[in-house]
Automatic annotation (TrEMBL):
Record keywords, A-Z: Membrane, Transmembrane, Transmembrane helix
Species name: Methanobacterium paludis (strain DSM 25820 / JCM 18151 / SWAN1)
Transmembrane stretches, start-end: 6-29, 36-60, 72-90, 102-118, 153-173, 268-291, 311-330, 336-356
Protein name: Oligosaccharide repeat unit polymerase
UniProt key word Translocase: no
């Protein structure tokens, strides 16, 4: 492997390795529905416990929380939707799964509450993932679509009510970190200056040299605003610019305040943004194409791909949800450790295409 010279090259190399690794693993083992159901259940329970513990620590003195919802939030969407899809597929083959569905509903609310208390952006990710997964499963399993105007209004009221409860808790407990209004006020204060800086200085393959925080040492691209986890870069002793320690606040003008499309455009240029959006469309279109193939085979009586179908529904749902939130709402949802999750979800979708072309 060629040694990466900057953040962008390193991201591309890691993405290629992840896709190749998951592709080889995916096509080297048998993936029965029972295994997918068991592993998705275990992963959902682990993430629910992890989010719950992290949120509990948030209210305890002298302990530091880790904000696991950023890197693992999309993985929670993947695990839960895969679990729900597996239970629905059991019904399709006339196996009762009422107990599994009941457990899935309990885990849904546990993760929603724990993750929502930690980060308001996670609530958006969670409910978007639920909506996308519900539509996808309603089409796959011949169920009447549950996305009706009444249900849409109910979901909107639920989301707004959740934010209202968080604001109330923040004031009663004197915990500003829970306040959605505080986040909105910060966006009002800092988002427009950040957006102005990005628009004025972004070029085709980076930004105007000297326009970033590093001043005279600015590289004009790949300056560390968008990067893989800092621990990974440091462990490989790669000489890339990093916003470490107190400098994290300087990175937040893009990472915390702007949608991912602006972060990617500023650090890597409009050309890279177009390529990223193109890849997202390829992954999504490929996922829906393969899902139709699996659905067609199942309706023709084949049970060979039930596990793969459940896995694809979960991965595709999580990828779409993370793309929406990360690219168009909050850059942090696809940055740092969350970027690794994004790559894994993309690979879990694209890994199906080799199997389809070989066996169909």
């Amino acid at each position: 492997m060629l040694i990466a010279q900057n953040h962008l090259q390193f991201i591309i190399e890691v993405a290629i390795l992840i896709h190749i690794g998951i592709l080889l693993l995916f096509n080297a083992i048998v993936i029965p529905l029972s295994m997918v159901l068991f592993l998705s259940l275990v992963l959902t329970v682990i993430l629910a416990a992890l989010f719950g513990l992290d949120t509990t620590i948030l209210f305890l003195p002298f302990l530091s929380h880790h904000e696991f919802t950023h890197p693992f939030g999309p993985m929670a969407v993947f695990a839960w939707v895969t679990l729900a899809a597996s239970a629905s597929l059991l019904n399709e083959v006339e196996i009762k799964s009422s107990s599994i569905k009941t457990l899935a509903y309990v885990l849904f609310f546990v993760i929603a509450v724990a993750g929502g208390l930690m980060h308001r952006s996670f609530l958006l990710l969670w409910f978007i993932g639920w909506a996308v997964g519900a539509v996808m499963m309603s089409k796959s399993f011949k169920r009447t679509s549950r996305i009706t105007p009444k249900r849409i209004i109910t979901v909107i009221i639920t989301v707004l009510g959740s934010f209202g409860i968080l604001e109330l808790l923040s004031r009663v407990l004197s915990t500003p970190v829970l306040s959605p209004l505080l986040r909105i006020s910060r966006l009002e204060d800092y988002a427009m200056p950040s957006l102005s800086m990005v628009i004025k200085n972004t070029t085709l393959w980076g930004h105007v040299q000297g326009s970033c925080f590093w001043g005279a040492n600015c590289l004009g691209g790949s300056d560390g605003y968008i990067s893989l986890p800092m621990n990974l870069i440091n462990s490989l002793t790669l000489p890339f610019p990093l916003f470490a320690g107190v400098l994290v606040t300087k990175k937040d003008i893009i990472d915390y305040m702007l949608p991912g499309i602006f972060g990617v455009a500023f650090d890597f240029g409009y050309g890279s943004l177009i390529l990223l959006l193109t890849w997202c469309m390829i992954v999504i279109c490929t996922g829906f194409y393969i899902l139709r193939q699996y659905r067609s085979k199942r309706r023709n009586g084949s049970r060979r791909y039930l596990g793969r179908e459940a896995l694809l529904i979960g991965a595709l749902t999580a990828f779409i949800a993370q793309s929406i939130v990360g690219l168009f709402l909050f850059n942090r949802t696809i940055n740092g450790a969350a970027m690794v999750t994004y790559m894994v979800l993309s690979a879990l979708v694209m890994a199906h295409i080799i199997s389809i072309r070989r066996r169909v």
